[in-house]
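Chain A, query sequence.
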Amino acid sequence: MLAAGHHPRSDGRRNLAKIIAARGGRDKLRARPFRAHLRTISFGEVSGPFVVELKRPLKMHMQLTVQNQTMVRVYDGQSGWANNPFAGKLNPEPMSEDEFEKYHRRIRL
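Chain A, predicted structure.
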């Protein structure tokens, strides 16, 4: 049971504030023009590289490769496109308005 007045979102905000402080503060993070994250992602028995590259202002390139199939999403702040071979979409297609808005909100960090 949660204590009176406790809200789970406040824990997330505190944790985010600690992460930002540990990385030198919000201004230092925003001053970096480019960030890249490389991870391995797993879906049950299969796994593959997952790469996200962010460049200011508002640019993103994401790539996921599993079982020799590669999904790519690209966003430049004004438009975006994606393919998804896992859903049978082999050719790049423009992002839907909902996807575009979702990426626009996330990348504005």
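The chain has a mean pLDDT of 80. Strands lie at 34-43, 46-55, 59-66, 69-75, 80-84, 89-94.
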